[in-house]
Amino acid sequence: MVSRLSPRVGFVALGGLCAALGVRHLAINGGGVGALLESVLIFGLCGIVFYTAYELPEWEISPSGQRRAVQIGALTALSFAALAAIVWLIWLLEHHAFKLSFLITFATSLGAAVGSRAGPYVVKADEQLAESRELSTLLSINDRVLRHNIRNELSVALGYLDGIEDVDDRAEVADRARIARTHLEELVETSERTRRIASIWRTETVQSLDLVAVVEEGVARLTAESPGVTVRTELPDSCAVRTHPALPLAFEEALRNAIEHNDDDVTITVRVRRDEDGATSLVIEDTGRGIPQIERQTLRNVVETPLEHTEGLGLWLIYWTVTRADGTVEFTENDPQGTVVRIRLPDRAESGYSLGADVDADVDGGGSWKPSGSTPNE
Residues 329, 334, 340, CA angle at the centre, nearest 5°? Predict the structure, then answer.
């Protein structure tokens, strides 16, 4: 339940706690000038915490980062209070009189003020560093994949086209042209997939989707292409989520992977459920051969071997879509055989948060995702 509260509410609660301690201190120590000045100092520190709550949306940090900032503020306040209590105890043992109420209240308020201002800076710096690392990973993947495929596919295509103008047999010319076209189309598809991944990474808006409708449409489209495959679904009547606009593409990629890389007798099960903490789980299970370990390793190891250049592109597409939605994705083995893709999306109903881009996106009827023009965030 706590995770579903807005981070701004967390900062307001922290400031309210410090203000309540200030009021209590003033009530205990009467209306003297000294107590009044002490309370003014405490209320001033509380105002810093309230101001942080007010300007939090302008920091352009993720919802999970905002919650981390609240935790940093609260833990800093708690540590300052504990330090003040220890200092008071030392003074007490040495027979130095000092007002415990003011010391604890002031230290707590000071800790809350320091933590509330430092927390967003720390979180934003962490997220910018993580974003730089993600960009480095993305550039590395695109560079390696495109370089590998441009060399291989073009070499094969040029090999079949070489000397084609001197071939008299029209059937052989047609056959060579067909093979060359196939390899060039593979190159175009690989280029398009890397472009999609880059677009997904750049797009930072969220949009409302009915996950049940997304699953039903994706299953209907892919089973129409592969009628021999059995896909079972366990779905509620509806399941609204606020997530990355490319989520339908990520789901179809996971489902297509289960269909295309297994035999026709594979059984696929798709489940959607709302967890107790408000998060939404989308699970795709199959009874096929499973994702090779070398492909799953690409998600944990940026340094690719020659055998890992293209196999993991679909997994990267799923990974970037879910992580940009502030979710998590796991690829595990099914029992007794097969693969389980488990996507978990956070509950974002409490916030209209966007990471800052004014670029919306959509998924067209064919499942291909593309950025659209500037539109307001939903």
Answer: 25
